[in-house]
Amino acid sequence: MDEAGRERYFTIEKHLLNVYDKNSRKLGLSAENTKEHQEWKKKLREVLSEISGLTRMEASDLKPEVLEVEQCDGYLRKKVILQTEPDVWMPTYVLIPDDLKEQEQRASIITPHGHGGGGKEGVAGRTEMLPIKEGIKKYNADYGVQLVRAGYIVFCPDARGAGERRESMLQGNKAEQLLGSSCNELNNIAISLGQSLMGMWVWDLRRLIDYIETCSICNPEAIGCCGFSGGGWQTLWLTALDDRIKCAVVSGYFHGFKGTIFKTNKCGCNYIPHLWEYIDIGDLGALIAPRPLLIESGAKDPLNGERGLEDVREQVEITRRAYQLYGSEQQLYHHVFDGAHQWNGEKTLEFLKSWL
Questions:
Q1: What is the Cα gyration radius of the chain?
Q2: For residue 252, how far is the Cα from the chain centroid?
Q3: What is the DSSP string of 200-226?
Q4: pLDDT tens per residue, range 290-312
Q5: Mind listing the pLDDT tens digit for each residue in 47-71?
Q6: In 3D, which of 186, 229, 184 has the Cα closest to residue 204?
Q7: Which residues pair with 295 in a beta bridge?
Q8: Directed axis angle between helix 197-212 and helix 230-241, to 10°?
């Protein structure tokens, strides 16, 4: 005990913060012109693909199969499964506006989900189960429905470890099961095999793009991605690594690693081997430049960390420097709303209409 009689603990958080300061952002954005940015982008993408395990993924035939078709209010909802690796299946809702004309092609949007909303069920507005209904209300999580009602074809996939892809320890219909995820268990296994959960997620989303490109109703040159929280994290990675995504909305996930992940969100999906040695969040955003990017942040979001919006804005400024190289600052938006950790969407439709 110390002199005041309190228990004394010998923790190492301060040590790890010092290690971070000494070793972080070795490949952070330093380009001074577009040529250097393109060279940096190519090198960093190779590094991120390696450390995330994307280079270790195994290709397979998609073998798409439609399992369900249901008419909803203003749109058709199809449930499709896709094989993303051998014997690895991803269920996805495809939301199609009722006013889609014969032989018409439209812009499509991939909507990765976050945590606590029941996976794709929440994004697609499935309110039949009370826990999912409550998750939607808490996070405004049904942005897939919001987007299909705005006229877009929307793809709502389950990420590995969530929804219908929960591993055995979380399967069932209790609230904590429906709204939970197997992120920690899967990432622990993945990193022991030279992979990562994020690498798996990005791989699956890339395979979903491959599928979209085969859909006659989708314009392959007009694919966007919009996600909240963990879905924003997925959106950021996918858009940073795949130029087929023409514009993106990242909601509730654009804060520095040191200021937030050390103290707030400890979910396994945040961790990729060696990632912090190379970059910070703003550098991922810089990989997207000059494609249109909307970042939305809740002013009262506790996941912004102890420094709040100051931390977020520092990361946005890193990204902004990349857009300045192209003279395209008008294609980077940062919308701050007066709210907590939730999808806001106030500027989303205007943004998508401008760029998709």
A1: 20
A2: 10
A3: HHHHHHHHHHHHHTT-TTEEEEEEEEE
A4: 999 999 999 999 999 889 999 99
A5: 999 999 999 999 999 999 999 999 9
A6: 186
A7: 250, 334
A8: 70
